[in-house]
């Protein structure tokens, strides 16, 4: 009888391939597929968009391990219809994204963004350098999962006061206080730094819009490292053009790569980074710390030990 397949997408180190084989001896492990393999793929690490329809139509797929925390790019309705389990990589990027956010904040409050521009122009100018004290500022983290919790714990040492927003307002370690999403417009009024770390779902689509931006302090800054479609791009552009808020930093966008003709490129109170906040050292090692325990559990009884995604909720 032909063994089912675990399809590993990407150039993973040999040591991890061997660990996968040892944990699931009744499976074949393949890093490339031919047409004849499709009808045997039961587990996929990563997702092959090119062969998406064939995988869904032909494979007895049972479980997909996403390599990202966000899963809005996956065919969740098809997964739900076919009973395919999904786990994500939530927590894997928590240090990287937290450090990215802290770097953005420090660059803004210490005027490093302007200094860099002046350096390129060979200009010695202290008059236009924006500076402020980070210590004592209030930060609102919208999305208090693994990344939000890590960020909250990290900024405390800088004197920042972290507050959080999540669906129900449940408490999360590291935050002074957490609030439910329905209180967002009220709480945001007192915040100096607002960080979006939300997944892309129907409920979060364009949640960052004029209604929220108009409630923020004129001196406030907005950072998005969640999903690009949580931000209403045109309304944020207008907000920054009108100086309704002081500054924004975007690492994710509704359209990626960001089109060359986007008006965002022209804004001097916006920092654009090309979806790099999640770049993570030792990525494979960290992903295997999620995948291998799940594989052991799945082989044993079909269950998953950690990071299972609700296909209805999208996270």
From TrEMBL:
<comment type="similarity">
    <text>Belongs to the D-isomer specific 2-hydroxyacid dehydrogenase family.</text>
</comment>
<keyword id="KW-0520">NAD</keyword>
<feature type="domain" description="D-isomer specific 2-hydroxyacid dehydrogenase NAD-binding">
    <location>
        <begin position="103"/>
        <end position="277"/>
    </location>
</feature>
<protein>
    <submittedName>
        <fullName>Phosphoglycerate dehydrogenase</fullName>
    </submittedName>
</protein>
<dbReference type="Pfam" id="PF02826">
    <property type="entry name" value="2-Hacid_dh_C"/>
</dbReference>
<dbReference type="InterPro" id="IPR006140">
    <property type="entry name" value="D-isomer_DH_NAD-bd"/>
</dbReference>
<dbReference type="Pfam" id="PF00389">
    <property type="entry name" value="2-Hacid_dh"/>
</dbReference>
<dbReference type="InterPro" id="IPR006139">
    <property type="entry name" value="D-isomer_2_OHA_DH_cat_dom"/>
</dbReference>
<keyword id="KW-0560">Oxidoreductase</keyword>
<feature type="domain" description="D-isomer specific 2-hydroxyacid dehydrogenase catalytic">
    <location>
        <begin position="26"/>
        <end position="305"/>
    </location>
</feature>
């Amino acid at each position: 009888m032909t063994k089912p397949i675990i399809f590993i997408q990407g150039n993973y180190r040999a040591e991890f391939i061997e660990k996968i084989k040892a944990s699931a001896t009744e499976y074949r492990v393949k890093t490339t597929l031919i047409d004849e393999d499709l009808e045997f793929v039961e587990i996929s690490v990563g997702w092959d968009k090119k062969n998406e329809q064939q995988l869904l139509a032909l494979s007895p797929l049972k479980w997909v391990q996403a390599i990202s925390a966000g899963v809005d790019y996956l065919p969740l309705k098809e997964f739900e219809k076919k009973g395919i389990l999904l786990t994500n990589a939530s927590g894997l990027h928590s240090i990287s994204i937290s450090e990215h956010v802290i770097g953005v904040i420090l660059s803004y409050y210490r005027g490093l963004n302007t200094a860099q521009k002046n350096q390129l122009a060979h200009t010695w100018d202290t008059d236009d350098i924006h500076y402020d004290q980070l210590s004592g500022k209030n930060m609102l983290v919208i999305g208090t999962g693994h990344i939000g919790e890590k960020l909250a714990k990290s900024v405390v040492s800088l004197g920042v006061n972290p507050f959080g927003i999540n669906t129900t307002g449940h408490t999360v370690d590291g935050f002074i206080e957490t609030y439910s999403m329905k209180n967002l417009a009220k709480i945001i009024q007192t915040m100096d730094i607002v960080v979006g770390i939300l997944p892309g779902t129907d409920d979060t689509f364009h949640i960052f819009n004029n209604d929220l931006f108009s409630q923020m302090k004129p001196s406030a800054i907005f950072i998005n490292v969640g999903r690009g479609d949580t931000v209403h791009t045109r309304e944020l552009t207008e907000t920054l053009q009108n100086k309704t808020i002081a500054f924004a930093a975007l690492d994710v966008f509704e359209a990626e790569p960001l089109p060359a003709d986007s008006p965002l490129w022209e804004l001097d109170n916006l920092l654009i980074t090309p979806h790099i906040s999640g770049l993570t050292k030792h990525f494979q090692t960290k992903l295997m710390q999620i995948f291998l325990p799940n594989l052991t559990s799945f082989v044993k009884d079909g269950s998953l030990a950690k990071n299972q995604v609700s296909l209805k909720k999208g996270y």
